[in-house]
Write a structure and sequence with these properties.
single chain; alpha/beta; Helicase, Ruva Protein, domain 3; five-stranded parallel sheet; 10 helices; elongated; DnaA family protein; P-loop_NTPase; Hda_lid; DNA replication
Length: about 240
């Protein structure tokens, strides 16, 4: 059965171009790698409709939800990413109306609507419509489904139906490798010495580390200089 294409909701929500599965570093065999592999399988499965990712801030959940949207678009499927931290002030019935028409709906940060009766009911209804029409819905939160303090029993039950995986925070060695790989993808040469210098003096949140790498990339291009410790000190004001 052909799916009609829904109208894109104009929310000013844009996907990050570099939020891809290829840009998400995991060590083979780690819990994060298992979560990513399961998510990619979910994206390909014609029978699985619900998937729940959870982890602490900085574990890369937003990246993975946006990567899933990019993958869906590459497969000529419709996808919508909704960061609930930015949208919790909207009327949920109006916001979620028609969202079940997307082949993939990604709801990021479920903890922001937990305990809000109107949101819980609207999300429960949207989940049912998505499942009944054979679409996929992907959730993320800072806790697993049983610890989210969802008050609506039916919604709490639905969230536990599908696959659920934790994405742990990266250790320092993983962050360093992720920085090095992100730099390489940008055509930057980042030595181990410089990567360790950045890691030990910059914020530990991986998203903030990537923002610092963006600054260094722009400065390196502007001044035509390699990434050395003196140059990093200059750019970051250390």
């Amino acid at each position: 059965m052909e799916h009609s294409q829904p109208q894109q909701l104009s929310l000013g929500v844009a996907l990050a171009d570099d939020a891809t599965f290829e840009n998400f570093y995991t060590q083979e065999g780690s819990a994060a790698a298992q979560a990513v592999h399961a998510l990619q399988h979910f994206m390909q499965s014609p029978t699985e409709h619900g998937f729940f990712l959870w982890g602490a801030s900085g574990s890369g959940l937003s990246h993975l939800l946006q990567a899933s949207c990019h993958l869906a678009n590459q497969q000529q499927l419709s996808a919508q990413y909704l960061p609930l931290s930015e949208l919790v002030g909207f009327a949920p019935d109006a916001l979620l109306e028609g969202m079940d028409g997307f082949d993939l709906l990604c709801l990021d940060g479920l903890q922001h609507i937990a305990g809000k009766a109107d949101w819980e009911q609207a999300l429960f209804n949207c989940f049912n419509r998505s499942k009944d029409s054979g679409r996929k819905i992907l959730f993320s939160a800072n806790a697993n489904p049983t610890e989210l303090n969802i008050n609506l029993p039916d919604l709490a039950s639905r969230l536990s139906w599908g696959l659920s995986f934790q994405v742990p925070l990266m250790g320092d060695a993983e962050k360093q490798q992720a920085l090095t790989l992100r730099a390489k993808a940008r055509g930057l040469e980042l030595s181990d010495e410089v990567a360790q210098f950045i890691l030990h003096r910059a914020p530990r949140h991986i998203a903030e580390l990537f923002e610092i790498l963006d600054r260094l990339d722009n400065a390196s291009l502007a001044e035509q200089r390699k990434l050395t410790i003196p140059f990093v000190k200059q750019v970051l004001g250390l």
